[in-house]
Amino acid sequence: MRAPRWVRACAAVFLAAGCGGGDDPPAPPPPATRFDAQVRWTAYGVPHVKANDYAGLGYGYGYAVARDQFCVLADRVITLRGERSAHFGADGRALVGFLPLPNLDSDLFYRMQLSTEYLDAAWQSLSDDARALAEGYAAGFNRYAAERNASAPPCKGFEPPAMTAADVLRAVMQIGTLNRSFMAAPFASASLWEHLDEPASAAVSPPRPRLGMASNTWAYGADATGSGTSIVVANPHTYWQDHWLLMHQVHLTIPGEIDVMGADFLGVPLPLTGFTRNLAWSIEAPATVTYGLPLKLDVRTGARPVYMVDGKPRDIERRTIEMKIMQGDGTTRTQVFGVPYSALGPLYRLPAAPGRPAGWYAVTDAAAGDARGLDQMLQVAKARDIAGFERAVAQHRGIAAHLVAGDSQGTAMFIESGPILDIDDAALAGCAVEATPTGQVPAALDGSRGACLVRDAQGRPRLAPAQRVPALATRGVAHNANDSYSLSIYGQRHDNYSVLFGAPVAEPGGRTRMSHCLIGEMLAKGKVDVDQAVDVVFGNRNYAAETLLDGIEAACAGAGGETARACAVLANWDRRNDGGSRGALLFNELWPRLGAIADLYAQPYDPAAPLAVRTMSTAPAVQEAVRSALAQTAAALAEVGLKGDEPWGAMLARPTAAGRVPLHGGRGDQGVLNAMEGAPLGPQGYGDIVAGTAYVQVVTWRAGKVVAKVMAANGQSTEPGSPHHDDQVALLSRKQLVDAPFMEDEVAAAAVETLRLTE
Fold this sequence. Notes:
Number of strands: 33
Structural class: alpha+beta
Radius of gyration: 28 Å
Distance between the termini: 24 Å
Helix content: 25-40%
Strand order of the largest sheet: 24-22-21-11-10-9-8-2-1-33
Largest sheet: 10 strands, mixed
Number of helices: 21
């Protein structure tokens, strides 16, 4: 065994100079410092972490985020390790992506999709800097955990584990598992080895939850601003409850190396939405993109189970997953699960779904085992312009997302950030298990044909080269609201990329329509300034109301009773979702009923004119259905003691220790860009905010200096006793962004607490 470093050092000195001669030997030198960071907190609990290397940078941030989100992040570590059953029992509930599932399904899914095999490969693919950042982040979390144990209350219902660098990788890799979590996670425990001989389940897939959240980003290039620089408005939306998608603000600096500020998701040690001295960008959920394709396998069972590819058998291997499971009496029992594996990965027994027959499936997923997002965002943070930003994304492609960015030189860009499979639309259609309409991604491919596996010679998912991935630059306006790339450059239409990125013929959502409308209005008046750019978000205009309310009022003609009173409420509404708007409540509750009316629109959707306004039909049957929907809505509101004309801010509010804070915004599917979702509805309004605007940053450049204003709507901390729990919700209520201290002199002047951390 090698002697400790200090012993080796003393031995070397002894040989040269006697190590102190006959006197007492000197005390050994202290062990080398592995981690060294300075953390300065400014208003609203924003940590500014400075270090001399990436290990120290991660260490400082791991400590800072643990101080704000310790129990939620510790719970996340348990989930992604596949250890919930050990802590909470197999029948407890977990959130896999966005699906609430039994802990057993969650544990099996993450043990398969974030396996040691995947983690080892992902670790080897990372740069030394990314590895050091991950190791430091885990060590910083553990440093805070050790301090907390002596002074803070324990996490409710579980003992927090120590974090490792592998947990940081899991948090990054999990972003790429969302597609599979919807598809396969609900059936993990029904897809074990002992089920190979059983027919496919007759159960149906659980419905995807209506997420109730939405993200928007605008990058106004120099042609739009007239200033020679860009204005970037980032408006990501996430859950407001204890959820892995909670966002946390941070500023990370290694002098001369990296200087980036923004917000991340819990467990990810770099801003996913952020800015530097030269660049600003934001992440959006890629709702239109298909990363993984299920492969229907021709499975032959028996003494040696196989699946057939091009008429030849390939082995199915039985792998074991050993898990501890908490019993009803609080003790744990170890249970071993056999999982069928192929060269294509784990097999899942999936029920029938549209375009997908019941059977055994593997998944070819472009994002499987991908942790390159760490290096991608490191390189993004070092980019000096949009060209460098594009290279950073294209060379790593580790975050499955849309990205919109702008730089200090006035160029804007929309780019797909994640990897995509290398298969063209014709091959997709030819490999479909069931015929698929033109412009749609098949629900399943034929896994019995080698050409349809979309794998390279080493059996890895075959990835498309950069030139086949949308990267659209402009000096005008780049924007996106979770729709496809097709309309992401204002005034242009792009439709020459794979249907895997989203079908250009698909109808854009209400937020995309509202965004186009507002951009057009601003440009028609002249150049875009910061105040106008912010008002696009916080103006709270409702696209559905602006295009349908005239038709609703026409249907109201001659109505009586409760219907007439509901019509009067809508007639007096300003068609916005501002805090003082009266009538937004009634429309919000009416909206789902309108959506259920057949042939509601007078004009069919025309893919050739995707942004053409569609108004409400004047057909008698439609008008009668609208009047009925109004009566039903009025009655439902009356049951909880409401009329529908209450001030919207009184209804949509955040309960805090100081009382309910009135808010604004509305449902994204109504075309409200400031998408906010409240539930449940009672006599006092919506009980709480489920999801909505989480972080806002507005970045531009003046006289060569970055100017940024920010806000994290639901605060930095989920810890109830923290001063930064809900302390920014009042900013959202007032539509107020605050200056972001970024330059060294700004941070030094704004710091309210400083801590030096070493280990």
